[in-house]
User: Fold this.
Amino acid sequence: MGAKHAKWFVTSARTTGWLRETELVPRTQGVVESIRQVRFALELRKHGKVPPPFPPHVAKDVRQSELLHELVTLQGRVGYAGIVQGERALERHAIGVEDGARDPYGPGSFPRPFVAADPEAGEAPS
Amino acid sequence: MKTVAYYKGCLASLSAKELDTSTQALAPKVGLDLIELESVTCCGAGDIHEAEPDYYLHLNARILAAAADTGVDTLMTVCNVCTLNLRQANWQLLNDGALRERVNRNLEAVGVPPYERDVDVRHLLWEVAEGDGWERLRLAAHKGLKGLRVAPFYGCQILRPSKVLGFEDPDRPTSLERIIEACGGEAVDYPAKIKCCGFPIIQAREDTALGELVQQIEQAVDAGADVMVTPCPLCHLSLDAWQSKLRALTGRDYRLPVLHLAQLIGVAAGLPESELQFRRHVVAVEPALEKVRFEV
Assistant:
């Protein structure tokens, strides 16, 4: 269910730019659960918390967002490769790598993890 | 006046429009001139960050580039999640030249100006909790909130990870308390004010999320709070809208009104209901505000 939730965020960003909130529930939890939640949803609707799905709230120049998604998909930094890219950046943050500080991949460190198509990758696993 | 680029995010654009209207009305009173960004999208929240990290980076780089293109130094947010996402992406881009070069090439390929001039990402909370913003806040909150006991709820993504956010001590924050007291209210202390509200899993694991949510609401009510204030619209949505489910779960009708930060300051500054839009709240706010002894 969590994965469906995340995938709907990606679809929303690609298609309308903004999160398609009303459709998020059926997309994440399915139609049956959505029906069970109708009473709750109607209460929220009274206060404007459930925007109507139509017309969709579309961001300006949303086509750029869709094209960016196509580009990053083509460049192949999806899944593991993208996660490692982000985790490396955050790791530097966590251990405070600055000029003169210890290189996490320097002498004495564990080998750099292998990521295909990474120019600085270590050796491929045998 | 300080000019800032204003990124409102998804919720303030739609289901939490009251946050946007109150922020825009409050801004000039606290010395902020907002340039609303237009060609921007969702920041991706934690979801795109986990599912497609490279796409998350590009979405946020596009937002940062749009802010830089306005010529300002500060991109102001009104959501904890947007703040964390944008600051995290900003850190990656500022500290990895090769990555920034690749992202900028991709931005230019789709017609977006490259992100070349650095901007700082700051939440509205930070803008009014210190410096000139703080001084202007004290002047703006002339009507005061005397007699109102306010429970601050920070949520997690404005405090942690502290190396990305770094505004205040993540275990002992004080910015909301300072603001409450500057507005003339009384800040109520309780342990769960820095915990997660559970919103990220409220659909996938509702029972678990409610187990998180009940802690803040129950502790704040037991500590004597009249209202709660939070700087995050996602926290606000769960704390406000899901109270009916807490009632069903616990048998206790908490009826604790939850305000956005801009609304709390807006009440103290005398903003009208047309800007504050309390009618959009699920738990009614007006009964609690009747306790306030406004300064004439």
Remarks:
- The longest helix of chain B spans residues 53-69.
- The longest strand of chain B covers residues 2-7.
- The two ends of chain B are 26 Å apart (CA to CA).
